[in-house]
Design goal:
The complex is a heterodimer of chains A (393) and B (631).
Chain A lengths: L1 E2 L12 E3 L14 H8 L2 H10 L2 H18 L1 H4 L20 E4 L2 E15 L4 E13 L1 E11 L3 E9 L18 H37 L1 H16 L2 H11 L6 H32 L2 H9 L3 H37 L11 H6 L4 H6 L7 H21 L5
Parallel strand pairs in A: 1-2
Antiparallel strand pairs in A: 3-4, 4-5, 6-7
Helix pairs in contact in A: 2-13, 3-5, 3-13, 5-6, 5-8, 5-10, 6-8, 7-8, 8-10, 9-10, 10-13
Chain B lengths: L7 E12 L2 E13 L4 E5 L6 H9 L6 E9 L9 E2 L8 H6 L4 E4 L13 H12 L4 H14 L5 H5 L8 H13 L5 E5 L7 H17 L3 E6 L2 H7 L2 E6 L2 E7 H6 L4 H9 L39 E17 L5 E17 L3 E5 L6 H8 L7 E7 L4 E3 L5 H10 E4 L13 H11 L5 H14 L16 H13 L5 E5 L7 H18 L2 E6 L2 H7 L2 E6 L2 E7 H6 L4 H8 L39 E5 L5 E5 L4 H5 L1
Parallel strand pairs in B: 3-8, 3-9, 6-7, 7-8, 13-18, 13-19, 16-17, 17-18
Antiparallel strand pairs in B: 1-2, 1-4, 4-5, 9-10, 11-12, 11-14, 14-15, 19-20, 20-22, 21-22
Helix pairs in contact in B: 3-4, 3-6, 4-6, 6-7, 13-14, 15-16
Classes of the chains: A alpha+beta (393), B alpha/beta (631).
Chain lengths: 393, 631
């Protein structure tokens, strides 16, 4: 008395139904080729697949990769040199790029401009001359520079027309091109985050790892130190540490001094992350299994624990890079971090410290734009990495 | 009530997920119905799609799911209206009016499904607050009434308690109260007893059955345990790989199973009627080939009663927690996790250790593995070459001991490192003990894979590519790598499906025979221990209350604790329903329900193991009469 459907008419008694469809006991374990590809993938590959699904993170990653590639060749990318002064164009506002002149396509160009001084307010006014077409040149010869301080060169990606000007982001009080200075400033601002994070990464892993693995009194002391460090307001602490650095130090020494300061303050968060992840991993059965096999501590930490939380750590570190970049910017803005002639985004922003400057020459705030973009990109990237860090969820 | 209407009709539903590696069809084609006031059981292995289907009924599928078909809900309170749950906007007012009010759900894990920050009363009355216009006092009255209905001894007090103050069984009762407070027409119970001890499971099943008749409520019971189904269900639907294999009234399903899958499932469940030496039929049998495995014993192990491999005497473990007051008033509370445990494991036998969660059985196993230091007692291991004092061993002796005693873990997921290939996992013990070179290790890994019936070509794969049963086999292979003499199996099958369980048990049995291994087999499942063990020890409250050969212990149990354990096991057999009357509310370890001769009154007449003959030991008062104990 078996029926052909497992579902009787509404309210009717249920008949005994037995499926007659072909039945394979192994069908649950059988896999499609795509699945077996997934199953043979290593954890790194799974993480990559999962990361790829986070569009915003991938875009941010590409954006950051392009920026970091850019800082390798900023001499080539910048239209002017870092310290080139155009005495006739002080506080010149950004120029607009045009394509058509009198209805005719001439390619990207800017109009030439001349300055008049308002004798009442002493404000410089720039007037565009609509007949002076200055075509922008590409892969051209411009200011000569020493690439990485070693190789002589004068090739630029983009430069102004011969005897013309190209200030896409305006100029500052010495007539220096703001765009070129932003490009050069990226070199310091972007690397200071990386160097600082690797410094605090080492500190965080060693201190947090020891605290998490051994626990006990050491853990207790480390945790209290972290709490004390985290409770000190960071800007006064930076100020105090920055004040220690002798004024006679060379810019490069100050650069490293600043990274050390940032690293010294930032390691606490990472150490906490390491410790809590270690505490969680230590409870996993496979760690106990290794102990029961007779593995010693160094093997357990090296083979089982560190690979287990490395991906989480990289994600955490990525998210804390923006803090470093902001820290440097803030310190330099306050005049306590790097000092001219070193150029970073924070130093560029010191130009915009007074309200009147912002009111008259708002383009001097433009270095904020890359700061915002980079920090958002790092946050999105870190977000994507964090999601991908545990590919089995 | 309109008899021509199904409360819930699931018509031709298919659910799939978009995941890496192509779409996953969790439910291919499922049709089933639940009658008003009746219990429909949905049976299947993990991965069969039964939980996903229940999520679809509640409208709580993940965002990535794609659904087709119809799920019709006809509310008996509004006769003539039928709603299609799948057509309702996600989390819209329509579905929210049903959830909690007309359809209730209880989950598997009572520990995580209650909020730790709110009192029981607060959580239970929350759905009243959402779905009814009742005032505060009325809600409180209704909640207390419901709490007493689900068996809280003191509902007024329970109202203001927090979940952490309750035991697992009481938490599950609170969950049930929460699901039933609005008197739903349909209760979905997703593995409601799987995480519970067997005696608590029996109580919860009894409670569900009672409430279901009292409130005239329908229930969709999702489970993999055929024993539970036989005791509770009216209609049964068997699901495999997202499709319905067999459906029918409970009588037809158990008396005339038709589909090979259901027959296979029934044959794979260990039960007390197995004859000695009878073998379970696993759904998917694994061939064992220990041909060239290192550490294989040539001589069969002796079975003599005097040939003791491991001797445990007066083992104790006391945990002290100190409460320090503000004014220096230190209070020490100590918990005796293991309290005077003594037993012997004979060479070549399998000793079963049974008990409910928290009875100390895992602590004992960890002490034997030197993962926990005991407070007192002695453990002597008489290996083939020499005997070792387990608790004192250091340095090289400890290394040797580690190779001799190995462990199989409960959780096949967390016991294998996700970052290592199977090859690395299996060769790690060999590397640690510096056995052989790279080539000989690879050969050992391959023969280990053969021994557990896995293709040696899989060694480059990662653990996530294996099913639960396969991972557990890899865990067993890792334990065998060093050629141990004693294998401690801590609940090796309790995280696995019934169908896979038989496969692992058979594998362990075959390996024991082929390699002359000795097992300490720890489990809370009496039927499983009965299948595996030669002798069984029952633990309760850190003590061994009864120890006997398996046929004696299960047929003629003496200690009241053992008796209630045996009585609480649900049989997948309609002719042997559970005897709900003998089950006590307080749980089997409630000593006040035991006879006076088994109770520790703290006086001169202390409890000690009494020999009833034939190796049958029972923990009772020294003065009590042996014949009186048997009654």
């Amino acid at each position: 008395m078996s029926t052909s459907s497992p579902l009787p008419a509404p309210g009717a008694p249920l008949e005994h139904y037995v499926s007659t469809a072909p039945f394979d006991l192994q069908s649950v374990e059988a896999m499609t080729p795509e699945q077996s590809k997934v199953y043979q993938a290593s954890q790194l590959r799974l993480m990559w697949w999962k990361f790829r699904r986070h569009r915003l993170a991938v875009v941010s990653g590409i954006f950051l990769a392009a920026l970091y590639f850019g800082i390798l060749i900023c001499e080539f990318l910048a239209p002017y040199n870092l310290h080139t002064r155009n005495m006739d164009y002080i506080y010149s506002p950004p120029q607009q790029v045009h394509l058509f002149h009198n209805g005719q396509l001439v390619g990207p160009f800017v109009y030439g401009r001349h300055m008049t001084l308002d004798m009442d307010t002493l404000k410089r006014n720039y007037i565009e001359e609509q007949d002076d077409v200055q075509r922008i040149r590409f892969f051209c010869k411009g200011d000569s520079y020493r690439f990485w301080g070693l190789i002589e060169g004068d090739r630029h990606f983009v430069c102004p027309a011969k005897n013309g000007q190209l200030f896409l982001a305006g100029t500052d009080r010495l007539g220096r091109d703001v765009l070129s200075r932003i490009i050069y400033g990226a070199r310091i601002s972007l690397t200071i985050g990386l160097v600082g994070i690797s410094f605090s990464f080492v500190l965080g892993i060693v201190i947090g790892g020891l605290a998490g693995y051994h626990g006990g009194l050491f853990d207790l002391i480390v945790q209290r130190i972290i709490e004390v460090l985290q409770s000190i307001p960071s800007i006064p602490l930076w100020l105090a540490l920055a004040a220690i650095m002798p004024i006679t130090w060379s810019p490069i020494l100050i650069y490293f001094g600043i990274t050390v300061i940032l690293g010294l303050i930032h390691w606490t968060g990472l150490a906490r992350a390491v410790r809590s992840k270690l505490l969680a991993l230590r409870e996993e059965d496979y760690v106990l299994a290794a102990q029961l096999m007779g593995a010693n501590s160094s093997r357990i930490i090296g083979r089982h624990l560190i690979p287990g939380f490395m991906s989480h750590l990289i994600a955490t570190a990525t998210i804390s890079i923006p803090g470093m970049i902001l820290g440097e910017t803030a310190l330099s803005f306050l005049g306590l971090g790097l000092r001219a002639p070193t150029t970073s985004w924070g130093i560029l922003l010191t130009e915009a410290r007074s309200v009147s400057v912002i009111a008259f020459y708002p383009w001097l705030l433009l270095p904020m734009l890359p700061v915002i973009l980079v920090i958002m990109a790092f946050n999105f990237l870190g977000d994507g990495l964090r999601d991908a860090a545990d590919p089995y969820k | 009530m309109n008899s021509g209407v199904d409360l819930l009709r699931i018509e031709d539903v298919g659910i799939s997920f978009a995941i890496i590696g192509g779409p996953l069809h969790a439910v291919r084609r499922a049709s089933l119905r639940v009658l008003p006031g009746k219990v429909t059981a949905l049976v299947g292995e993990s991965g069969s799609g039964k939980s996903v289907l229940s999520q679809a009924v509640m409208g709580i599928l993940p965002n990535t799911a794609r659904v087709r078909g119809r799920i019709l809900f006809s509310d008996p309170e509004k006769p003539g209206t039928t709603q299609d749950i799948l057509q309702m906007p996600r989390d819209g007012p329509g579905i929210r009016a049903l959830r909690g009010s007309r359809i209730g759900k209880i989950f598997q894990e009572p520990m995580t499904s209650l909020s730790p920050l709110h009192t029981i009363g607060n959580q239970v009355s929350e759905s009243l607050q959402i779905h009814t216009p009742m005032g505060r006092a009325e809600r409180k009255a209704r909640t207390e009434e419901m709490l007493s209905l689900v068996g809280f001894p003191n509902p007024k007090r329970a109202y203001d308690m927090y979940p952490f103050e309750l035991s697992g069984g009481l938490r599950q009762r609170a969950m049930i109260a929460m699901a039933l407070i609005c008197r739903p027409a349909l209760l979905i119970a997703d593995e409601p007893t799987t995480a519970l001890d067997v005696t608590i499971q029996a109580q919860i099943l009894q409670l569900l059955r009672e409430l279901q008749t009292k409130l005239n409520m329908a229930m969709l019971l999702i489970t993999h345990d055929l024993g539970v189904v036989a005791n509770v269900a009216d209609e049964v639907v068997v699901m495999y790989h997202g499709e319905i294999m067999e459906a029918g009234p409970v009588e037809a399903i158990f008396r005339r199973p038709g589909h090979p899958y259901l027959k296979g499932l029934m044959a794979a469940v260990p039960h007390f009627d197995l004859k000695p030496g009878e073998r379970l039929k696993a759904l998917r049998e694994v061939p064992v080939n220990v041909g060239n495995l290192l550490g294989k014993q040539t001589a069969p192990a002796s079975k003599g009663a005097d040939d003791i491999l491991l001797s445990v005497r007066d083992l104790e473990k006391v945990y002290t927690t100190r409460k320090s007051g503000w004014f220096g008033g230190n209070q020490q509370t100590s918990i005796r996790a293991v309290d005077g445990v003594s037993f012997d494991i004979r060479r070549g036998e399998c000793l079963g250790l049974v008990g409910e969660s928290g009875c100390g059985k895992t602590t004992v196993s960890k002490i034997l593995m030197r993962a926990v230091t005991p407070s007192g007692g002695s453990v002597v291991f008489n290996g083939r070459d020499r005997s070792i004092d387990v608790l004192e061993a250091e340095g090289n002796t400890l290394r040797m001991l580690r190779a001799k005693i190995q462990m199989v873990f409960q959780d096949p997921v967390s016991s294998l490192s996700p970052r290592m290939t199977v090859e690395n996992i299996l060769s790690e013990p060999l590397e640690i003990h510096r056995r052989g070179n790279a080539a000989s290790r690879l050969a050992t890994v391959k023969s280990l894979m053969q021994a557990i019936g896995l293709d040696p070509r899989f060694i480059k794969r990662y653990p996530h590519s294996f099913s639960g049963g396969q991972r557990q086999r890899i865990g067993i292979a890792r334990a065998l790598a060093l050629g141990p003499e004693l294998l401690i199996c801590d609940e090796p099958v309790s995280a696995l499906d019934v169908s896979v369980q038989a496969q692992i048990l058979n594998l362990l049995k075959d390996l024991q025979k082929e390699l002359g291994l000795t097992y300490l087999f720890i489990s809370h499942n009496l039927a499983v221990v009965d299948y595996m063990a030669d002798r069984i020890a029952v633990m309760c409250g850190g003590r061994i209350v009864e120890l006997a050969p398996r046929e004696v212990l299960l047929r003629k149990p003496v200690h009241p604790y053992t008796r209630s354990l045996v009585a609480a096991v649900p049989f997948p057999d309609l002719d042997r329903p559970m005897d709900f009357k003998t089950l006590k509310l307080g749980g089997a370890s409630d000593t006040s329900a035991w006879g006076p001769q088994f109770r520790d009154e703290g006086d001169e007449d202390i409890l000690s193991p009494l020999d009833l003959g034939g190796g049958h030991l029972v923990l009772a008062r020294r003065s009590s009469d042996v014949s009186e104990l048997r009654h």
